[in-house]
Write a structure and sequence with these properties.
Elements lengths: L7 E10 L2 E11 L4 E5 L6 H9 L6 E6 L2 E2 L11 E3 L11 H11 L4 H15 L14 H13 L5 E5 L7 H17 L3 E6 L2 H7 L2 E6 L2 E6 L1 H6 L4 H6 L6 E6 L3 E2 L15 E5 L5 E2 L6 E10 L3 E8 L2 E8 L9 E5 L6 E4 L18
Parallel strand pairs: 3-8, 3-9, 6-7, 7-8
Antiparallel strand pairs: 1-2, 1-4, 4-5, 9-10, 11-12, 11-13, 13-19, 14-18, 15-16, 15-18, 16-17
Helix pairs in contact: 2-4, 4-5
The chain binds adenosine-5'-triphosphate (ATP).
Length: 360
């Protein structure tokens, strides 16, 4: 049997600028039809990764394949990729039809072929009635479809997108996410989408690639990233408010407190990770004792900022509970809620055995 062919595959790709690695031995494989999101803080190398795949930068090391073809040494024009950039980059003085046709003309596509592709792309994206308009006469969603049309009119179904929604206001951005995701699915496109917005990544990605300082921290579905982060970096980066991270001392107990936990912590300095919504009010005698510092009431739920020893802890509880600042509460959690990390390496440790670990 032949090995599965990936739409995009990188093997140990590195790009080095004078004093640092923009991407450092990056390997990843994206399946055909997947919507993959590259997520990470500013400067972590997302755009560099996209530019390497597009052929706008050349790697110092490693290999890039598109649909099974080694493209590492090929110029951008021969990689058969579509690109959508920030704020769509449509030409304001050209009509929708001219915007769509621009790339084909540059490439010297014959007139008959151009007209056929224009008609087909306009039909696919529902732009037939808008071909004579200028970008300024279009809604945000229509502009997005023109930008996407321009990326796929040449027959390309593998598209790279660099923060295409970053210049839109929050409401429009939200609508556009859904529309873009639906279009990608309908057209069976493979998309590699760069963003620094975790809500965008979790909401849109089949798979999310989390980058940190030029390296990949984790590649996983949004659910796995959220529930089983592979490192402290991912645990901190994903989730609002972020995961609570409590250093454990030998004992094991939460550092600086008397709270003993039945966690297997032999020989390791560990960090206990608990999502705010997985903390719940515990009956007297159970759970850990916290002091409520502040309460942010959000309607359906409330976010409590609490203190335990010298650590801060957020808990998301049902809004109707309305605890008051200054109150002392006991918080517990279910066994599956626990994440454990090695404090020195920051890597995730194997899940502890169940039944586990009520505070005692
Ligand atoms: P942002 O979200 O801010 O766009 P990013 O994750 O896309 O950031 P990159 O633009 O890929 O990050 O940059 C990665 C690192 O490489 C940064 O430290 C950046 O300063 C550096 N860098 C990017 N391009 C060059 C260049 N042409 N020469 C030197 N350094 C560069």
């Amino acid at each position: 049997m032949l090995p599965p062919m990936h739409a995009i595959r990188l093997d140990n790709v590195s790009k080095h600028y004078t004093d640092h690695h923009a991407t450092d031995a990056v390997s990843l494989a994206i399946e055909p039809g997947q919507f993959a999101v590259v997520l990470g803080p500013s400067g972590c190398g997302k755009t560099t990764l996209l530019r390497l795949i597009a052929g706008l930068e050349h790697p110092d090391d490693g290999r890039i394949e598109l649909h099974g073809r080694d493209v590492t040494g090929l110029p951008p024009g021969r990689r058969e990729l579509g690109m959508v950039f920030q704020s769509y980059a449509l030409f304001p003085h050209l009509s929708v039809a001219e915007n769509l046709l621009f790339g084909l003309k540059l490439r010297g596509t014959r007139r008959n072929d151009r007209q056929r592709r224009l008609a087909e792309t306009a039909r696919l994206l529902g732009l037939e009635a808008l071909l004579a308009r200028k970008p300024s006469q279009l809604s945000g969603g229509q502009q997005q479809r023109v930008a996407l049309g321009r990326a796929i009119i040449g027959g390309r179904r593998t598209v790279l997108m660099d923060e295409p929604l970053s210049n839109l206001d929050a409401k429009l951005r939200h609508e556009m996410r859904r529309e873009l995701r639906n279009l990608a699915r309908e057209l069976d496109m493979t998309v590699l989408y760069v963003t620094h917005d975790q809500a965008e990544a979790l909401g849109m990605g089949d798979v999310v690639v989390v980058m940190n300082q030029g390296r990949i921290e984790q590649i996983a579905s949004p659910e796995i990233l959220y529930e089983r982060p592979s490192s402290l970096f991912v645990a901190r980066f994903i989730g609002t408010p972020p995961m609570n991270l409590l250093p454990l001392q030998a004992g094991p107990r939460i550092e600086g407190t008397d709270h003993l936990l039945s966690i297997v912590a032999e020989g390791h300095e560990q960090v206990l990770g608990l999502r705010p919504e997985q903390l719940e009010l515990a009956p007297p005698g159970a759970g850990i004792e916290v002091l409520v510092d502040a309460v942010e009431y959000l309607g359906a739920d409330a976010v409590l900022s609490c203190r335990i020893g010298r650590h801060e802890l957020s808990a998301r509880v049902p809004g109707r509970l309305r605890p008051q600042p200054g109150e002392i509460l006991r918080l517990g959690w279910k066994p599956h809620a626990v994440n454990l990390f090695d404090a020195a390496s920051g890597r995730r440790l194997p899940d502890p055995p169940v039944p586990f670990p009520q505070a005692r």
